[in-house]
Write a structure and sequence with these properties.
The protein has 224 residues and is mostly helical. Helices cover 47% and strands 6% of the residues. It folds into three domains: 64 residues, Electron transport complex subunit B, putative Fe-S cluster (3-methyladenine DNA Glycosylase II, Chain A, domain 3); 83 residues, Alpha-Beta Plaits; 70 residues. α6 runs antiparallel to α7. The N and C termini lie far apart (42 Å). The chain binds iron/sulfur cluster (3 copies).
């Protein structure tokens, strides 16, 4: 089997960059090319020992200067404090935060690896980390990391995202005005805002045709 893949499979998939690389796959590539394999502090001794076996080496301790470690955790946003600045979205390596400029943001718990990269950029300190037993959230993080990286370096997609953000902001203003009216059905207005944003994003990012969109919404309704 490919050495990079063997090494990568042993890394914790948190994509935190503490090993001085952008993410787990890049560190696996570096290890395969001879870089020392003791830098993954979140993986700890268990990861180190597994890498020792693969590489037939015997490093006895993790280099804690790359730490501190990361427990099994997910981020949560205090929505009442969030000012919708989007800084956390830009920092998240696996696109686990949803939200639009000037609107509150949410963590998509199943995608969040607990990497802590969104904590420091938040200007109002409204993101917390809570420990969890769930380990499943990290399983697909490399796919999400790769997709997020591609999107960030794709100029035409970036432009479409900026356009969609402006659109979402405009929709948000309309909805907030409606919410300010007496007798407004807040729940219904918010639901239609979310559906409108989702519909626009299926157009902008995924180029869904009407048929694909109809199937997507059908699936969504069935899940509800
Ligand atoms: S979990 Fe963090 S420190 Fe460990 S390999 Fe992945 S990116 Fe590097
Ligand atoms: S939401 Fe925060 S803690 Fe979770 S993966 Fe994204 S940056 Fe990391
Ligand atoms: S960085 Fe903080 S305030 Fe800004 S959108 Fe994210 S959670 Fe909200």
């Amino acid at each position: 089997m490919d050495l990079v893949k063997l090494i990568h499979d042993e890394l914790p998939q948190i994509q935190c960059g503490r090993c001085d690389t952008p993410g787990c796959y890049q560190y696996a590539e570096q290890i395969a090319s001879g870089v020392v394999h003791d830098r993954c502090v979140p993986g700890g001794t268990e990861t180190l020992q597994n890498l020792n076996k693969i590489l037939v080496k015997n490093i006895t301790s993790v280099d804690m200067s790359y730490g501190p470690t990361i427990p099994n955790q997910v981020a949560v946003i205090d929505e009442s404090e969030c000012i919708g600045c989007k800084k956390c979205i830009t920092a998240c390596p696996v696109d686990a935060i949803s939200g639009s400029v000037n609107l509150m943001h949410n963590i998509i718990e199943d995608l969040c690896t607990g990497c802590e990269l969104c904590i420091e950029p938040c200007p109002v300190d409204c993101i917390d980390l809570i420990e969890t037993d769930k380990k499943k959230s990290r399983a697909n993080s490399q796919i999400n990391f790769n997709t997020t990286s591609k999107l960030r370096f794709n100029e035409s997609k970036k432009k479409r995202m900026d356009k969609a953000n402006k659109l979402n902001k405009d929709i948000g203003i309309v909805i907030n005005t409606k919410l300010g009216n007496r007798n407004a059905d807040n729940e219904k207005n918010l639901e239609s805002l979310q559906l409108k944003i989702l519909n626009d994003q299926l157009d902008s990012f995924h180029n869904f045709d009407e048929n694909q969109k109809s199937n997507f919404f059908k699936d969504l309704n069935q899940k509800d």
